[in-house]
Design a protein that fits this description.
Among the domains are: 2-18 and 35-200, no CATH class; 210-292, no CATH class. Helix content is 26%, strand content 26%. It has helices spanning 34-48, 52-58, 62-65, 75-79, 177-180, 188-198, 233-243, 246-256, 291-303, 326-336, 349-356, and strands at 2-10, 13-19, 23-28, 95-101, 104-111, 126-134, 143-148, 151-154, 165-168, 201-204, 218-219, 261-267, 270-276, 311-315, 341-345, 361-369, 372-375. A hairpin with a 2-residue loop joins strand 4 and strand 5 (104-111). The structure holds adenosine-5'-diphosphate and magnesium ion (MG).
């Protein structure tokens, strides 16, 4: 389970440290940084997929992702006595992302290369530093792998020789240790962490327009994990029926749509769902369902996966759902959180209120002050300990 997420210098998240629990609910007014927090977590996941540099390019480049305010915010700026103006830079500009978990923790720092007039790729982000340590507290003695620029050192416990070993000297600037160090003998913790992060699941706005992949009949293959665009909905539901929590699925359907049932049909090699509602003589297929019903079925299939990941992230799952469905959605999310760590970003009051009823729900309320995202109610005592240690 992740215990802390730390972000520095990413858009409105100038310096944010969040405590995470089993079920996390991120809320806050428009523009306060909910999506930025979501995107920061996604960037971390993309690091393990080997795609962090591309992901940053798609966001408009590293320079545009950097916090656009001054490096330091003085007391005077906060009280309005002094103007907001650039402060003299004391540290190189870095975007930093990290998480702590009970098992292993990780951080990455990205920056821009030194100016070089011989290349047109002078704005390509570079990975300046990465570190993996054991447990959730960074202590020099708990660091297992430390990368600085092109050089990676490891002090894996299982190695016979004590002390640091240089295990890579020529890392490409854009490649993470997760894509480069894939030797299960020398760095098993890198592989372990990589595989855990790669399994994190992000569901962000399922399409439900008439051409949406979820509306089409599909070739059936066993599908314990619903694709993020929902293209394999019928297979995922059938897989839950065969090897997962069939009763839980049926209960979730009738909780949201009293009297309704879902079946999966096989026709000419293709699978399609049938949604039987009270009052109808035949079940409706995926192409006939309302946007809200289709999205809700997608959420059930995602959340009741027979292969829960370490972390499941839902970005504004309320989109295009009827408000009356939101209490049932909250119950479904709470149930899923007993199988995996869940992170929900929402600004729908009914969903927020219903989730808050659950004891295990950890509310993370965001607020923005002078352009910076803060966590409401967080003070020195409740801010999780995290430091972007410079020296191992
Ligand atoms: N590079 C940046 N530096 C500082 N603030 C930024 C940067 N990029 C975007 N923002 C701010 O982030 C806010 C958007 O946050 P977002 O996470 O999308 O909000 P929401 O909570 O509505 O999802 C915008 O109001 C914008 O001011
Ligand atoms: Mg948003």
């Amino acid at each position: 389970m992740l215990t802390t997420l730390a972000i520095s210098n990413y858009r409105s998240l100038r310096e944010v440290k969040v405590t995470l629990k089993q079920l996390n609910l991120v809320t806050g007014a428009n523009g306060c940084g909910k999506s930025n927090l979501y995107k920061a977590l996604r960037l971390l996941a993309q690091t393990a997929q080997g795609g962090v540099v591309n992901a940053l390019a798609q966001e408009g480049g590293l320079e545009s992702c950097f916090w656009a305010g001054p490096e330091n915010i003085t007391k005077g700026m906060l009280t309005g006595e002094t103007a907001i103006e650039p402060t003299v830079r004391q540290q190189p500009k870095r975007l930093k992302l990290g998480f702590a978990s009970e098992e292993y923790s990780y951080l990455i720092e990205l920056g821009l290369p030194k100016p070089d007039s011989t290349t047109l790729f002078g704005l390509d982000p570079q990975i300046k530093r990465e570190a993996i340590w054991v447990g959730n507290k960074y202590r020099p003695a708990s660091v297992l792998v430390e990368r600085r620029g092109p050089v990676v050192k490891s002090r894996a416990e299982h190695q016979k020789q004590a002390g640091w070993q240089t295990i890579g000297q020529h890392m490409q600037h854009g490649d993470s240790i997760f894509s480069e160090l894939a030797d299960p003998e020398r760095t098993p913790e890198v592989i372990h962490l990589r595989d855990t992060i790669r399994a994190w699941r992000f569901y962000d706005h399922f399409r439900s327009d008439s051409d949406a992949p979820a509306r089409k009949p599909q070739l059936g293959t066993r599908t314990p994990v619903l694709h993020h665009d929902g293209r394999d909905l019928a297979s995922a539901i059938q897989t839950i029926f065969e090897i997962g929590d069939r009763d839980g699925f049926n209960d979730a359907v009738s909780d949201a749509f009293p009297g309704a049932t879902v079946t999966v049909h096989y026709n000419a090699g293709l699978l399609n769902i049938g949604f039987q509602q009270e009052g109808l003589l035949r079940p409706l297929s995926a192409s006939e369902l309302s946007d809200g019903t289709l999205r809700y079925l997608l959420l059930i299939a995602a959340l009741l996966t027979p292969r829960p990941p370490a972390l499941m992230v839902l970005n504004e799952p309320e989109t295009s759902l009827h408000p009356d469905l939101l209490p049932a959605l909250a119950r479904l999310i709470a149930k899923a959180s007993s199988l995996c760590q869940v992170w929900v970003v929402s600004h729908a009051n009914r969903l927020i209120n219903a989730l808050n009823e659950f004891e295990q729900c950890h509310l993370i309320e965001l607020d923005k002050q002078l352009g910076q995202t803060h966590i409401l109610g967080q003070d020195i005592l409740t801010t999780p300990s995290w430091n972007w240690q410079q020296k191992a």
